[in-house]
């Protein structure tokens, strides 16, 4: 009986390739400071020679980081759709990049989990084909150019050369706790899923074969809070420990996990003529990310004192409530549906 159960367990194990190339990126938004300081720490540790796992560590948007702004010209984390990346990478990389002096801050630490080292050259992918591309002019926003460089370094998106796993570090002003956002302690983790095809996926994490944003809040932009920084640091360390164990052939038993799938965004009430917002998030909703919102629950409090209620027919889970960076995007909060997803047992196929 025990043998049968053992065989049953192994017959349901999904074998996946080992992860030989992993990237941790911070500063994709230049005013989200936990990820920026975490990347700086990792780069320092690399210099000290005490990096425990082979990982490329990158500062995604160094200009925005320098200015402590979300972006310089356009949101970098919306520049990674397939269409946007089909621009003339040869022109971009050959001309504009050298003229603006972009530096890719990255390290490639020694590898302790794999039997053979991955040469750094294997990490530097060449730019993708320039066919079917849109022209690039001197007016092309800085972040569009930077996205090409990151795609060349970490992708190309959708190719066999792309990094196996890309973890992009973000902060939010919303009270989300530690979230993993994708198309993964002592800190509870929530999984948010944006149901977007790979071609249309716009964020940096979509460049890797697998990827996710690690989003930790609440933390005001331009500020680093030690509790938030520590949660992010622990999250990155757990990910790296997991990769070590996975690459060593450890079997991870399956189970179920709750996933929040994005359904829609809700904008602030606005004056139809001026488009200015006329209400703030209601105090009963503020900071209640991932707490079920029922039809009729308070959603906004207008500046004239009127409570505006959730008019949807279905109870949904709000998140990114009152995120500072989303005022310009017309998003007061997002709503998600929770579902339970069964995860099979997995192990790396290195032992075969
Ligand atoms: Zn961000």
From TrEMBL:
Domain (AstE/AspA barrel-sandwich hybrid) ranges: 256-338
Q: Where does Zn(2+) bind?
A: 29, 32, 170
UniProt keyword annotations, A-Z: Cell membrane, Cytoplasm, Hydrolase, Membrane, Metal-binding, Zinc
The record's similarity note reads: Belongs to the AspA/AstE family. Aspartoacylase subfamily.
Required cofactor(s)? Zn(2+)
Q: What is its main location?
A: membrane
The protein, known as: N-acyl-aromatic-L-amino acid amidohydrolase
Q: How does it sit in the membrane?
A: Peripheral membrane protein
The family database entries (Pfam families) matched by this protein are listed as:
AstE_AspA_cat (PF24827), AstE_AspA_hybrid (PF04952)
Q: Which Gene3D superfamilies match?
A: Zn peptidases (3.40.630.10)
Select a single GO molecular function from the record's annotations and give it. hydrolase activity, acting on ester bonds
The membrane-spanning stretches of this chain are none
- Catalytic residues at 215 (proton donor/acceptor)
Question: What are the subcellular locations of this protein?
Answer: Apical cell membrane; Cytoplasm
Which of the seven top EC classes does this enzyme belong to? hydrolase
């Amino acid at each position: 009986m025990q043998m049968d159960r053992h065989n049953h367990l192994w017959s349901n194990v999904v074998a996946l390739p080992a992860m030989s190339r992993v990237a941790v990126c911070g500063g994709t938004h230049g005013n989200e400071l936990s990820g920026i300081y975490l990347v700086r720490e990792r780069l320092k540790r690399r210099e000290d020679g005490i990096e425990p796992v082979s990982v490329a560590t990158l500062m995604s948007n160094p200009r925005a980081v320098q200015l402590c702004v979300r972006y310089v010209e356009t949101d970098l984390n919306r520049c990674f759709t397939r269409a946007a990346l089909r621009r003339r990478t040869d022109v971009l990389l050959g001309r504009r990049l050298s003229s603006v002096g972009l530096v890719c801050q990255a390290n490639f630490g020694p590898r302790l989990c794999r039997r053979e080292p991955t040469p750094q050259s294997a990490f530097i992918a060449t730019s993708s084909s320039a066919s079917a591309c849109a022209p690039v002019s001197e007016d092309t926003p800085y972040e569009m150019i930077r996205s090409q460089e990151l795609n060349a370094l970490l992708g190309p998106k959708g190719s066999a050369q792309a990094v196996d796993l890309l973890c992009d570090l973000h902060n939010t002003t919303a009270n989300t706790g530690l979230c993993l956002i994708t198309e993964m302690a002592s800190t509870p983790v929530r999984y948010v899923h944006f149901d977007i095809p790979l071609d249309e996926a716009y964020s940096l994490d979509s460049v890797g074969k697998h990827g996710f944003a690690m989003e930790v809040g609440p933390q005001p932009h331009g500020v680093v809070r030690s509790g938030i920084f520590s949660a992010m640091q622990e999250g990155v360390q757990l990910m790296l420990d997991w990769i070590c164990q996975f690459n060593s052939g450890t079997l991870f038993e399956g189970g179920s996990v709750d996933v929040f799938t994005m359904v829609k965004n809700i904008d602030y009430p606005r004056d139809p003529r001026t488009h200015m917002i006329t209400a703030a998030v209601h105090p009963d909703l503020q900071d209640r990310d991932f707490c079920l919102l029922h039809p009729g629950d308070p959603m906004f409090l207008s500046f004239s004192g009127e409570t505006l209620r959730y008019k949807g027919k279905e109870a949904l889970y709000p998140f990114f409530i009152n995120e500072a960076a989303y005022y310009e995007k017309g998003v007061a909060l997002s709503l998600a549906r929770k579902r339970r997803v069964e995860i099979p047992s997995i192990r790396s196929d290195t032992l075969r």
